[in-house]
Amino acid sequence: MSALGNIAAAQSAKRISAYNAKVTRMEKDFIEAKAEVNKKFYKDVTKPLLLKNQEKSRDNLFVNILRSGAEFREGTTPYDVMLENNVNAAFNVVIADYNDEMDYNDQLNQSLMLEAKAQGQEYAGRMTARAQKFAAVGSLLSDANQMGFIGS
Q1: Which residue of 1, 28, 81, 100 has the smallest Cβ count within 10 Å?
Q2: How far apart are CA 112 and CA 24, in angstroms?
Q3: Domain total of the chain
Q4: Whose CA is closest to 134, among 3, 1, 12?
Q5: 44: containing domain
């Protein structure tokens, strides 16, 4: 009887879609965890290191200016160089913060897309199972009609 095959296919469709959704959700959870780790690493390691290196460069530049014997006051070239250096350093921090936020948002968006994919897999399994159940009922009705149980 093909009805039994349809019922078995319906159960298989549900199980396969549940498994696929579970695997997809595991991937989503991994990406979410990775996003949090990356954000924490940036905050605790990368950004402090960037700021420390900028401070060291700023100090070295200032010492080199003073060693040169040039006057360091507002309106002089050494002052302007130091000011431009500070502006560039601040801009680099802003860019690093922006990139960190964009990476974090990208990973969260990926995790949301994976959740949507998992829901789609579950839905597809339910729809396939429903179609197979309808096919099983149709097969049973057809068999009953051929045996004369219906319409006689």
Answers
A1: 1
A2: 11
A3: 1
A4: 3
A5: 2-146
What the block records as the tokens of 61 is 């530049």
pLDDT tens profile 38-75: 999 999 999 999 999 999 999 999 999 999 998 889 99
Distance between CA atoms of residues 21 and 39, nearest Å? 27
Q: For the chain, first and last CA: distance in Å?
A: 22
- Residue 151 falls within a domain, yes or no? no
Residues 90-101 pLDDT 10s: 999 999 999 999
Against a cut of 0.90, is the pTM above it? no
Distance CA 28, CA 26 (A): 5
- Smallest Cα–Cα separation from 2: which of 138, 127, 125? 138
**Residue linked to tokens 């097969």:** 139
